[in-house]
Amino acid sequence: xxLYIDPGxxxxxxxxxxxxxxTLRYLFKNGLVRLRFLLNxxxxxxxxxxxxxxxxxxxxxxxxxxxxxxxxxxxxxxxxIVYMTASPDDPALDNSYAHVKAQFIGKNNKAFAKMNFxxxxxxxxxxxxxxxxxxxxxxxxxxxxxxxxxxxxxVQYRMFGIDYYDAVLLSANYQKRDIRNLEKMRGLPSKELxxxxxxxxxxxxxxxxxxxxxxSDGCTVLLAPSWGKSAIFQKYGGKIIEMLLNTGYHIxxxxxxxxxxxxQEMLEKIMAQYPASxxxxxxxxxxxxxxxxxxxxxxxxxxxxxxxxxxxxxxxVIYADTEFDSSPYDAWWLDYQLWTFSALPQIxxxxxxxxxxxxxxxxxxxxxxxxxxxxxxxxxKETWNCQGEGTKLTVDYLLDKYRDLTAAKGEK
Length: 412
Description:
Structural class: alpha/beta
Shape: globular
CATH class of the largest domain: Alpha Beta
Strand content: 5-15%
Order of helices and strands: HEHEEHEEEHEHEHHEHHEHEHEHEHHH
């Protein structure tokens, strides 16, 4: 008989273990400092020679496309950075940049255990939940920076997702408004909020300009659901795939990567019911550039990829009415409409259970209507500031912050 431990209890036990290990580590480190002091005849020695200036932490290989432009810019400037990943097959591990040292630090709790005792000046990550569950702030890290991986709300993270970061890099003013409101409600100190734009979107736009748009005969529809109780598959199940197949168009389905972990049973059932064919393909590419470029229209819900598709590729979308349940998210604390749900009607049509049978007509309308092109231009200005400058501004900020931190501590 297997012993089952629910996630909450498991997190608590892991936190207790981390606390015990942290105490032992502190005692050992303190004893080592005292020993060095005695061996050096009572002279003060540098006890922080192994501190890493910059660390990027990625909990999944799919974020390499988010971080690569930043890594490339660090390398171009001749600045060393360590890339720590929880994916053994992360493309970062094969990077060719002379100043980017990538290392696999283990999966899940093993990776968090490594991060919890890290000795570094600045840690940059897209991972929410710092100091909430398994990932704790290390006493030997000076500054934590959260980097966005979508042009949408930061309050769509699970509750308390970015509360304990020191800084957040932003792309829109509404993101700043939401964070400041949460800080006020929760009595949190003000984080540094820096408008840097989004490097990966700049990179994708540049790549699209260089490679050009894909062209194909007929229409290709991309179904890209998010995951969780408020996502497409939880509400529509396989019926939406049935309706898409009835259009006669080529269909690509790209589930959210987290679905393969958190909704594996449900997803496998749908994939078995609707296997790949000449008309239908399931996509799991690590880099989504090609699949977004090939599609003529996207159907999604509240996933951030909907804005990548609309704003970078300048193509129409259909967004599913999934009756978004904000209770697990930071958005629950806010008493006003999220920016996403005011933006979506401007860039596409809403899909409901009532109009699902008219899906083909909706697709045809969205492809032809000029009003959604106008909406995309408006929304692009609202959520994608600093276009083309994201990488430079991000690295400029990180280097300036490092100089400030080391000057304050008198370090070299």
